[in-house]
Amino acid sequence: MSSKLQAPRGTFDVLPAGAPARAAVEAAAKSILEAAGYRRIETPMFEQTELFARGVGEATDIVQKEMYSFEGFSLRPEGTAPVCRAYLEHGMHKLAQPVKLWYLGAFFRHERPQAGRYRQFWQVGAEAIGSEDPSVDAELIVLLHALLGELGARELRLRIASLGTPASRAGYRELLQAYLREHSDALSEETRKRIDLNPLRAFDAKDPGTQRVMEGAPRLADHLDQDDREHFAQVTDLLARAGVEWQQDDRLVRGLDYYTRTIFEFSSDALGAQSGVGGGGRYDGLIEQLGGPATPGCGWAAGVERMLMAAEERPQPEPGCDLFVAWESTERADAFALATEGRRAGLAAQLDLAGRSVKGQMKQADRAGARYVAILYPDGTVLRDMDSGEEEKVERSGVVAGVLKGRHAL
Ligand code: ATP
Ligand code: MG
User: Fold this and answer.
1) Considering the entire predicted model, what is its pTM?
2) Nearest C-alpha to atom 13 of ligand 1 is from which residue?
């Protein structure tokens, strides 16, 4: 017995009915980001595993358990490290800085599938590389805010914090580690195991005991340098100037190691457990980590599926049909030629491809939403206006011009 073949667990097909909403996300991202000077970049679906080990961080969940790896390569779990690799590889530091790029594509993470969490999902992302100015951080946040607004995402919340620089963070890290060790009895097994490698992750723990401990934990915000504090204040001032509401959340943890200073996340209370819609931050150490010169950068990524889930469902226009060519048995070649002529003239044109009776073809034309139907009989041609129901005898050579004229008259 053969078993039924199915799409792999955690993946999904985008069927024709679902395609227009996704195309609308792409169109909105393109128009909003390109109007601000971001240009599209595409990177490969897989990269050397080492890129993610170095760029995302050995200690992260992504690298430790979520990558699909084979023969030294990994399917890309995120877009920032690949974009930074491309920036370096193509010498983009020679261009005017910051270099502003955006992308949309599929990403892969081996996680437990659940609502809003897939093993292949799509992200829109934006990166601005080469400037540490706080206006870069603010611009990126404002643009993601605009995109989410354009898509109609509901009940949005923007949380923002500063992670400081590696220097200010190092001292704080030790403090936090000491605090966690002191309370290790009350911590979850998982958090305890991460004290050495990734203590900040404890703020993200779901376990109630750990959460209680974390309420009294020292906060990074209280241990930032003067420069970091000022940078953060400037970012949030610019957000206020743009009318974007935000709340500071010192427990915000992002899943990637490379962040410095600003980190942020948009979530939607309209979603369930997987409420994160998009987020990002500044990564001033990343390019150096990848072997390049010290180069600041900042960016975000937002999940296409989560954005659509957070958005009000909107009716999407069906593709139209200006002309349907119906034909009786001997007229196939003429019908085919007429449909081709119509398409070359810019019409949305279809013809029967299944050998239906003329009556069956009229039904098919109706299903296709055809505006006009040309019916090709051996002894002549009839053009039917599907709105008024009027029919007239026409010359075959005049059909396309007639439909074009009728379309303009609308
Ligand atoms: P989460 O907290 O949900 O695990 P994350 O912090 O891992 O998210 P990022 O790496 O910041 O997410 O990715 C940015 C966005 O990509 C998320 O806000 C979310 O919208 C989307 N995303 C991340 N992982 C998945 C997934 N497995 N399936 C669908 N969308 C995802
Ligand atoms: Mg995750």
Assistant:
1) 0.91
2) 301
